[in-house]
Amino acid sequence: MAKELYEIGEVPPLGEIPKKMYAQVIREDRFGEPAKAFQIETVEVPEIGPDDALVLVMAAGINYNNVWASLGIPLNMVDVHRKDQGDTTNMHIGGSDASGIVYKIGSNVKNVKVGDKVVIHCGMWDVNHPDIVSGKVDPIVHTTNRIWGYETNWGSFAQFTRIQAHQLLPKPKHLTWEEAAAYMLVGATAYRMLMGFSEHIVEKDDIVLIWGGAGGLGSMAIQIVKAMGGIPIAIVSDNEKIDYCKKLGAAGVLNRKDFDHWGMLPHWKDTEGYNKWLKGVRVFGKALWEAIGERRNPKIVFEHPGETTIPTSCYVVDRGGMVVICAGTTGYNATVDLRYHWMHQKRLQGSHFANDEQSKAFNDLVIEKKVDPCLSKTYSFEGIRDCHQLMYENKHPHGNMAALVTATKEGEGKE
Ligand code: NAP
């Protein structure tokens, strides 16, 4: 007889789905700092549809998106689930990265079977939409795209997670459960940014400037650029992070605290303010050339801080080069001096997660050991709130974090 609820760390018999599960839940009445927003609750295990699968979560990866979900900004995700998906649970179970074991599959699912060991990419979309079926629209650009465990409920901060089966990829055999849970969201995002926009993909000897080189996205970007034969130059805020980036493959590293021209671009009519900014950005540009070792500008700037850095990114990127951006951690207003933008024919490209092919291509780099997941620290299921709190305070360790869910101790899961 199937148990109604298993304790954290207990592995149900393969294919047996209990009625209930433990989950780290965010609710609207406790939106705020992650330490307060997350609470462990017992909830129903979700039903799956014909194209879905249910995965027993062995370990979950930690990402910045559930810091935003805790805060309830820029969007109230509980309300998004309610209005967008008709979800009546009034809760948000986050978690957009995981490693685990397939426990149930829908009637249409052919790419996996019960018992497969998997990692999960976080791109969901209407798999039956004619534009997607025909290949007319890249699914991650399609209006139906949603990030699992952020824009949808039933993410990986629970014993079971509901996903669309196309999100599943083989777990790299050489990795532990927690290592395998740590890399996919940031890695596939970085892969699309660097390899997804033709004319501006990383090729041999291309210089790529990478903000937050010791962070989740940055640590993946450095390794991808290196794997493609490019020259990664990283920016950090602490000299302690310099060695870390160099070990990952950065050819040069700058400390942004050595410069002071950050923030929005002064208005072009404010001659004094603008000239002060120009002087500051030129000092930065010169330091960049020194780090590169020659007077060459980056072909690609890998952006995510947004408001405070984008004027610099758009200034230093090479003629005909691309600033590719997937976030605005410091703010959403991009100020750009359009005179340089059009005369030097630069490209400012938005990017958001990745499609199935890009997620697979990135997972293959991990399987081939060309990219390390950069797992810095592993937390317990209870500790999911603590690691998000550290991330909120920008006090989290370098690289990526994960939390054990069904795996009981670190180091398990290698095959
Ligand atoms: P992370 O591990 O916290 O890294 C972010 C890095 O940004 C930090 O290491 C920090 O490095 C740097 N940073 C912080 N403040 C800065 C500032 N004022 N100027 C320049 N750099 C600054 O986070 P992550 O996982 O890489 O994610 C970064 C952002 O991307 C988040 O907002 C996340 O939500 C977003 N994201 C979006 C997508 C997407 O698909 N759209 C996917 C993944 C992540 P230093 O302090 O060392 O400079």
Describe this structure in words.
This protein has 415 residues and is of the alpha/beta class. Helix content is 28%, strand content 21%. The chain is built from 13 helices and 18 strands. The strands form 4 sheets. Strands 3, 5, 6, 9, 10, 17 and 18 form a 7-stranded mixed beta sheet that branches. The protein has a 6-stranded parallel beta sheet with strand order 13-12-11-14-15-16, sandwiched between helices. Strand 11 (207-210), helix 7 and strand 12 form a beta-alpha-beta unit. The longest helix has 22 residues, at 271-292. The chain starts with 19 loop residues before the first strand and ends in an 11-residue tail after the last strand. NADP nicotinamide-adenine-dinucleotide phosphate (NAP) binds next to helix 6, helix 7 and strand 12.
